[in-house]
Structure formats: structure tokens, C-alpha cells
Design a protein that fits this description.
By secondary structure, the protein is of the alpha+beta class. It is built from 36 helices and 17 strands. The longest helix has 81 residues. Bound molecules: adenosine-5'-diphosphate and magnesium ion (MG).
């Protein structure tokens, strides 16, 4: 039957058939892409990650425009006026069908996605029409819900009812906002609203009436449409939504009064902008280490921006009813323009036409994403029951049917949230800064604590050291006093024994125990007297024989045999005499030595310092008594004669040689004797002894004698000329006894103080020999080495200042610097003092500065300016440092201040 036949667009030509199976299964919800929670929807996530930067890329989800039809119940007027007539439509909601009666016997059937009867509740309408769209919007898609229909059919009722008195009457706008507010997170998401009215191709801001000509801006790249001039109100709760909608409604009424129009002639558009933060996939699963670390990357913030557009269109009847006059005509044209442009666009889209006239009106430009775009769109067409408006109703139904053919491609718009990223990075950076500060503070505290601890330990060690030193000093003092006391007692006892009140002298040469020196001397004197007596006897005998010989000659020349006999006897006597004379010299030299040793002991006991004959390496030991008289030794020396003593150096008797060399060494300590010794060939003899090394004592004493002679400048040159430095160097390298080495080092140290000998000393190995002796380690030896270095450095410095020499110090060339630096803090004061002076001399010349800085000598010089106990050395060091630009620059670099 035609009247009950299933009508679709094909029958009418313009409308394409909708398959019943498709229509039936097309519940709003089932056909939509899976609506999901924003953090778990895998399908959406895939799409979004492919197009997060602009939202323009990636595959969309197909989504046809869904259309529902809603029938308004008869109103009071219709109940009366149409009382005798049946409704022009009959709804079959269970089949989602609508029958439009043509007349009493003919009707046309249409299928919709949803058919809502006059009894449909607002809640149900919201749930089937708007809710799926709202859920999509919460997922990041754009969405549109639009009401289309003749004036008075319930568009505003469906969309804009506030339902303040009756909550069940709340329309789609209020319910959508409620749903959105329930689902967004207040901390990270934002919801803002613009409320606009489009009237006669002009956009008015319903939230700010002064703003009455808002322009549309299109992003040429993405095609996105926006209204930057419109007021955006941030929405936080439902109450503010109601207030905003009421305000918009009030402004709408006011604007319509002003424009002399009705709200049914304008389009009302509520735009809801939602911005939701999404955590990037990789950042949402941080590793364990990242979770626990302060340095974990902040999550990659993405933001999904979506827009819900709710459109309460102007009454559709105007499309047909043109022809009004004046202002009404213009208005009708404009209203026609927007609605007819919308109709044309939907027709074009429904028919897959190549050209869609979107740009023809502002409404179509605003809704470009809603039809044929990326938004999920639901259209609700409202119709009235009155048969008087059958034509309007039919046209509304046809509009809805065409819209059902429009296919959209839903896409999520997701982008980097740069602002939030910057904010998060800032927070992250602040956290790192705070952490860094905490760590720095902890580190500083630790350093301070360690420093305090170290200082405490150092001061404790210093205290302990000082205590130990003091104890040691007291112990030595006690021992010394004990020794002095003992010696004094011994001396008194000796004096008592001798009973002569003169000196009692012990042998103190350290070479074996012996009887008292006094006894020795007495014995020697006796022997001497005996020998003298014997000599005199022998001389008398010779004289007697001579006179006898004379008598014999006178008596007769014939007694040849007797004469010969006598001659032989005479020769014997001469030989005997010579022997006796030699013995006398030996005995005298022995006595000289013993006297000298006694003298030493006397000085020692009277507090004159240690009694070693060869100590005077620095300064000659004066043997002249205070009153200017010669000492007994010198007096004896005068008696014996230089030559005789020197002859004894070559005596066949080893003991005699030892005695003789000791005598010479002691005599050489006295300046007055030095010249005589040298003139008589003593230096040569001493050098010969050194060369022919046979006995350690001889060698040691000879070296001591040479050292004493080397105090004199003229002798120094002679020693060098006679190859003395080579001999001393050989001794330096093969002697082991520290006493020998001390003598050798003392001799070389004296030579080092001669300006003229510098080059020769170096070339003949003198410096090397001096430095070689540090192996011994004995403080006395080291002290002599240090003195030699100081002397040498001083001469070099003098020569450099006088312009006689240039170039780096020979000491540095010979590798002395490390030892110098190492011993600058030697515990022994004499060593330290010489080294300090040497450092000052070396630093006075620019050529040495680089080596000194590299060798650590600068630190020692700085230390000398602070720690040296001698004021003159401290100020010399300070002067030296201050006068050198290079050293000053280095100190500045090292932040050292004097
Ligand atoms: P339109 O906006 O389409 O011009 P309205 O929403 O202003 O129409 O509706 C006109 C009248 O009809 C209003 O008084 C409204 O309350 C009423 N009305 C509309 N739809 C319904 C409905 N479904 N149930 C009850 N009353 C309705
Ligand atoms: Mg209305």
C-alpha cells in the first residue's frame, strides 16, 4: 500500500534511500567511536599520537551526522484550533520512523536516527542526542549539537531551558555543561564559554553587549575557525553556567528589543572550549630510577583542545516566507542567507558535490567543522503536530533527512602544551636548583668540618711535638750539666793529684784511653831533657876527638890507620847525632800536639765550646790568647820550626805522620800560621796525603787542614791551581765516615765563597761532589753542604748584579734546586738558615724564576717571609719577592698575599 509504504528520498528523487538495517542499527551511541576515558582510550591514543602537533594529520574516525526528530505536544491554542483535526505526523519510535500525513489517506514515512515523541523527557533527549557528542568532546573531538525547526516547535525548549524551578526541564546546554564540569580535572583542565548571537550576518557577544560585531578568523593552515574578539568566560561550577546563560538570555532580549526583532529570527550559539592535559605515553611510564631521581625528565605535557558548539537556529519558516517589506525584507534576506546557505551546504555534502558553499554565510563558516569537518555532530529537528503547519514540518523533515547523509571525519586535536611544559620545566628546574643548593651546603659543611678536624689534629701534633722537644731539651741540659760537673770533679782530682795547681790534661783525641796528659808531658819532658843531655855529651865527645885528632896530626902524619878509625867513629857519631835530632823533633811535635789537646780541653772545661781542632771551618779558631800573647802551641811551633813539622808529614813512621798532620791541621786553624804553612809547602804536602790515602784518620785530618787553609782567599786559588778540588771530589765520593765528609764539605763550602772560582768549581765537579755528599745525611755534613750552596748562590748573585755573569744559576743547572726546596724546612736551624739565604739569592735573578716557580721554591720563599725566625732573612725574602714582577704575578695568580 502506497499510503503505508515505506517512503524515502528515492521516491522523492532528492532523498536517497536509507537502508532499514542501517537506520535500525544506527543508535547514536553504537555508531560512535568508542567513548573512553581520556587516559585509556587506545583508539584515540593512536590517532592522537599520530597527529598531536596540529591535529590535522592522522586518520580520522568516520562519523555521520546524527539526526533526531522531536515532536512538540499540542499547545493550548492548537488543542482548540486543531481539535477536530488529527496531527500531521505519526511517530513510530520503536522503528525510529515518522509518518507525515499528506491527507487522510496518504502519508510518507521517514527514518531517523532517533524519533522522540511529544512525551520524551528532556533527560532522554539529552542522552540520545547530546550526551554522545559531549563525551566525544571530553575525549578531545570537536562536537556540535544543533536544533533546527519552525519557530515555536521547541528548539529553545530542547537546548536552552534552564530548568531552575523544575530540574527535569533542564535543556541540553545546562546538562552538557554539567557533564563537562563533572568530568574535567579542575587542576589541569580548563573550560571556557562564549555565548553569541548571529543576526543579519553580524555576530553579537551575548556576554558583552558592547561587543556587537565580532569577526571570524580562520587559520589558513588548519582551517580552524575562531572568534578571538568574543568574550571567553572561564567556568568553574554549575551555578556560574546558569548565571552565564541567564545573562546571555537577558542580553539577547535586550538586543532584540533594540533591533526590533524576535529571538526566533536570530541564531544563538554557545561555544564551550575545553582544554585537557594529557600525559605523553613515554612519560606516563617512567622507569624506577627516573621515579626516584630528582633528575627524571618531567612528563611530556600534551593538551587536547576541543570545542562543543550548541546552536539554537533561527526559525526555519523564514526560509520559505520571504517577501516581507522594508527592514523585514532585509532581515528575511539575511536569515534566508544563513539558513539557506546551511541548507545548500548540507545538500552539497549529502550529494558529495565537489563544491560546498561554506563561505556564503557566517553561519556556514562558523559551522564548517560541524558539517563535513572533523566534529561529531548531532542535529535535532523539532516539529509541531499542527496540520496547519504541515508544509513547514515537511521541509524540516527533509532538511533532517539530508543532514543524515553528511559524513564527517572525526579527529582529535592534540598539541604540545608549551606553556605547561615551560611551567613544569620551571618547577623542575627550581627543584634541581634547591637540591643543588642543599648538596652544595652539605659539601661546604663537610669541608669546614674536615678543615676544623685537620686544624685540631695539627695543633694537637704541634703541642705534642713542642712538649717532646721541651722534654728532650731538658734531658740534654741535665746530661750536659752532669757531664760538666763530672769533668770538673775529675779536673779537681787531677789537680789535687799533680799538686801543682797547673792544668791537668787528659788525652781527649778520642783515640783510646790514656793516662793523664800531665803525666805524658812530664814524661816527654824528661825524655827531652835526657836526649838533650845525651846530645851535649855526644858533642863533648866529638870536640874531644877533634882535639885528639889535631894532636895526632901534629904528632905525626904516619898514623893513617888510627885516623881512618877515628874518621869512621866520627861518621857514626854524626849519624847518631842526626838520629837524635830527629827524635827530638818528633818528641817536640808530640808535645806540641799534646799541648794543643790540653789547650783544647782547658777551653772545653771553661765553656769555650766543643774541643775539636778542626771545627773552625767557618771562622778560624783563634789560638792567640786574649792578652795578645802567643798560645803555648804557637810558641812550641816557633821553637820546632814549620819545615821540621812538615818534614814529619813524610816520616816513615805512621804514628809520626798522624801526629804531624794533626799538628798541621791545628796550626792551619790559626790565620797567622796559614801563610807560613803554605809558603813552606804544607798545602802541597796535605794534598799529597789526601791523594795517597792510606789511613782514614790521616785523610780526615788532612781534609780538615785543607778546609782551614781554604778560609783564606789566596789559599783558595792555590788549592784550585794544585788540583785540590779534584782530590776533594774523589774523597767526597768514596769516603764513608761523616767526620771526613764534614771536612771535605767544609773545604768545598769555603771554596764556594770565592767569586773567581765559580766556573772552575763547576767544571771540575766541585758542585756535583758537594751535592753528592747529601747521601750521608748527617746533619753536620748537610749543614756544610747548605753553607756551600748559600756561598755559591751569593757569589753568583753578586756576579749577576755586577753584570759579570748572565744565564741561569749553575746550581739549578746542576740539579740542586729540589734538594734546596726539600731542605728549606729542615729541622736543623743552621741548614735551614743557609738554605733560606740561598733561596733569596737565587730568586734575585729573573733567569732563575721560572725554574724556581716550577720547583716549588716560590712557596718556600713565601713561607720564609712568614715563618723565618730571623728578621733580616724575612725582610730579604720579602724584598726579593716584591722586586720581581714574575714572582709577583705568580703570587697574584695563586692568590698569595705577603
Ligand atoms: P522555538 O524555540 O522553536 O521557537 P520554543 O522552545 O520557544 O520554540 O517553544 C515554544 C513553546 O512550546 C514554549 O512555550 C515551550 O515551552 C513549548 N514547548 C516546546 N517544546 C515542548 C515540549 N516538548 N513539551 C512541552 N512544551 C514544549
Ligand atoms: Mg526559540
Amino acid at each position: 500500500m502506497a499510503s503505508n509504504g515505506y517512503r524515502n528520498g528515492t521516491n522523492k528523487g532528492a532523498i536517497k534511500p536509507i537502508s532499514s538495517s542501517n537506520a535500525r542499527s544506527s543508535s547514536f551511541k553504537s555508531r560512535l567511536p568508542p567513548s573512553s576515558n581520556h587516559s585509556s582510550g587506545s583508539a584515540l591514543r593512536r590517532t592522537s599520537s599520530a597527529s598531536f602537533s596540529s591535529g590535522a594529520g592522522g586518520d580520522g574516525v568516520p562519523g555521520r551526522v546524527r539526526v533526531a526528530v522531536r515532536l512538540r505536544p499540542r499547545n493550548a491554542e492548537e488543542s482548540i484550533a486543531d481539535a477536530d483535526f488529527a496531527d500531521c505526523v505519526e511517530l513510530q519510535p520503536e522503528f525510529k520512523r515518522l509518518k507525515l500525513r499528506k491527507n487522510n489517506w496518504e502519508s510518507e514515512t521517514y527514518e531517523f536516527d532517533e524519533v522522540l515523541t511529544e512525551f520524551a523527557s528532556q533527560k532522554r533527549v539529552y542522552e540520545v542526542v547530546a550526551k554522545p557528542v559531549v563525551e566525544s568532546v571530553l575525549d578531545g573531538y570537536n562536537g556540535t549539537v544543533m536544533a533546527y525547526g519552525q519557530t515555536g516547535t521547541g528548539k529553545t525548549f530542547t537546548l536552552g531551558q534552564l530548568g531552575e524551578e523544575d530540574t527535569s526541564a533542564r535543556g541540553i546546554m545546562v546538562r552538557s555543561m554539567e557533564e563537562i564540569l563533572t568530568n574535567v580535572s579542575p587542576g589541569t583542565d580548563s573550560v571556557s564559554v562564549s555565548y553569541l548571537q548571529l543576526y543579519m550576518e553580524t555576530i553579537h557577544d551575548l556576554l558583552d553587549p558592547a561587543n556587537d560585531n565580532i569577526s571570524i578568523v580562520e587559520d589558513p593552515r588548519t582551517g580552524d575557525v575562531s572568534l578571538p574578539g568574543a568574550t571567553h568566560v572561564e567556568i568553574r561550577d554549575e551555578q556560574s553556567v546558569l548565571e552565564l546563560l541567564k545573562l546571555g538570555e537577558a542580553h539577547r532580549i535586550a538586543a532584540n528589543t533594540k533591533l526590533n526583532t524576535e529571538s526566533s529570527r536570530s541564531h544563538a550559539i554557545l561555544m564551550v572550549h575545553i582544554k585537557r592535559s594529557v600525559i605523553g605515553e613515554e612519560a606516563s611510564n617512567p622507569s624506577e630510577t627516573e621515579k626516584s631521581s630528582h633528575f627524571a625528565k618531567p612528563p611530556k605535557p600534551l593538551v587536547r583542545k576541543s570545542k562543543l558548539v550548541l546552536v539554537d537556529l533561527a526559525g526555519s519558516e523564514r526560509v520559505q516566507k520571504s517577501g516581507s517589506e522594508g527592514h523585514m525584507l532585509e532581515e528575511a534576506k539575511s536569515i534566508n542567507l544563513s539558513l539557506s546557505a546551511l541548507g545548500k551546504c548540507i545538500n552539497a555534502l549529502a550529494e558529495n558535490s565537489s563544491h560546498v558553499p561554506i563561505r556564503d554565510s557566517k553561519l556556514t563558516r562558523l559551522l564548517r567543522d560541524s558539517f563535513g569537518g572533523t566534529a561529531r555532530t548531532s542535529l535535532i529537528v523539532t516539529i509541531g503536530p499542527s496540520p496547519r503547519h504541515r508544509g513547514e514540518t515537511a521541509s524540516t523533515i527533509l532538511f533532517g533527512q539530508r543532514a543524515m547523509k553528511v559524513e564527517n571525519m572525526l579527529k582529535i586535536k592534540e598539541e604540545f602544551d608549551y606553556k605547561s611544559l615551560a611551567r613544569k620545566l620551571e618547577i623542575h628546574m627550581d627543584k634541581l636548583i634547591a637540591e643543588n643548593e642543599r648538596q652544595q651546603k652539605a659539601f661546604d659543611d663537610e669541608v669546614e668540618r674536615t678543615n676544623l678536624e685537620a686544624e685540631k689534629r695539627v695543633s694537637e701534633a704541634e703541642r705534642n711535638f713542642t712538649d717532646a722537644l721541651e722534654k728532650e731539651r731538658l734531658k740534654c741540659q741535665m746530661e750536659y750539666m752532669g757531664s760538666v760537673k763530672m769533668l770538673e770533679e775529675k779536673m779537681i782530682e787531677n789537680q789535687r793529684k799533680c799538686g801543682c795547681g797547673g792544668l791537668t790534661m787528659d788525652k781527649c783525641n778520642g783515640e783510646g784511653p790514656g793516662s793523664s796528659i800531665g803525666e805524658d808531658i812530664g814524661e816527654v819532658k824528661k825524655m827531652l831533657e835526657k836526649e838533650t843531655h845525651m846530645r851535649k855529651e855526644a858533642e863533648k865527645e866529638v870536640d874531644k876527638l877533634r882535639s885528639q885528632l889535631g894532636q895526632c896530626t901534629d904528632a905525626g902524619a904516619g898514623v893513617d890507620a888510627e885516623i881512618l878509625k877515628l874518621q869512621i867513629a866520627l861518621e857514626d857519631e854524626v849519624l847518631q847525632k842526626r838520629k837524635l835530632e830527629e827524635e827530638i823533633v818528633v818528641l817536640r811535635s808530640q808535645m806540641l800536639q799534646l799541648t794543643f789537646e790540653a789547650d783544647q780541653m782547658r777551653r772545653c772545661l771553661s765553656g769555650g765550646g766543643p774541643g775539636n781542632a778542626y771545627t773552625g771551618l767557618d771562622s778560624p779558631m783563634s789560638q792567640v790568647s786574649d792578652n795578645g800573647h802567643k798560645t803555648p802551641v804557637s810558641a812550641l811551633f816557633d821553637q820546632v820550626g814549620v819545615q821540621k813539622v812538615l818534614d814529619l808529614l813524610e816520616s816513615e813512621d805512621a804514628n809520626v805522620r798522624i801526629h804531624a798532620v794533626k799538628v798541621v791541621a791545628n796550626l792551619a786553624a790559626e790565620e797567622a800560621n796559614q801563610e807560613r804553612i803554605v809558603e813552606a809547602g804544607g798545602l802541597t804536602s796535605l794534598l799529597t796525603l789526601l791523594r795517597s790515602y792510606e789511613d782514614e784518620t790521616v785523610r780526615r785530618v788532612a781534609a780538615g787542614a785543607i778546609a782551614n787553609l781554604a778560609m783564606n782567599e789566596a789559599n783558595q786559588e792555590l788549592i784550585m791551581l794544585q788540583g785540590g778540588i779534584s782530590l776533594l771530589s774523589i774523597t767526597a765520593s768514596d769516603a764513608e765516615d761523616p767526620r771526613t765528609l764534614r771536612m771535605v764539605a767544609g773545604a768545598i763550602a769555603n771554596l764556594c765563597g770565592n767569586d773567581k772560582l765559580q766556573a772552575m768549581l763547576r767544571s771540575e765537579g766541585g758542585i756535583k761532589a758537594l751535592l753528592g755528599m747529601v747521601r750521608c745525611g748527617h746533619p753536620d755534613v748537610l749543614s756544610q753542604i747548605a753553607r756551600g750552596i748559600a756561598n755559591f748562590a751569593k757569589c753568583e748573585s753578586r756576579a749577576s748584579s755586577n753584570g759579570i755573569r748572565s744565564g741561569k744559576s749553575l746550581l739549578i743547572d746542576e740539579g740542586a734546586l729540589p734538594w734546596i726546596v726539600q731542605n728549606a724546612t729542615n729541622d736543623a736551624a743552621p741548614i735551614r738558615r743557609h738554605i733560606e739565604l740561598a733561596l733569596c739569592h737565587l730568586a734575585q735573578h729573573e733567569v732563575n724564576e721560572k725554574d724556581m716557580i716550577n720547583g716549588g721554591a716560590l712557596w718556600e720563599l713565601v713561607r720564609i717571609t712568614r715563618d723565618c725566625s730571623r728578621e733580616d732573612i724575612r725582610s730579604l725574602a720579602r724584598r726579593t719577592l716584591n722586586s720581581s714582577p714574575v714572582l709577583r704575578a705568580e703570587m697574584r695568580r695563586l692568590r698569595i698575599e705577603l
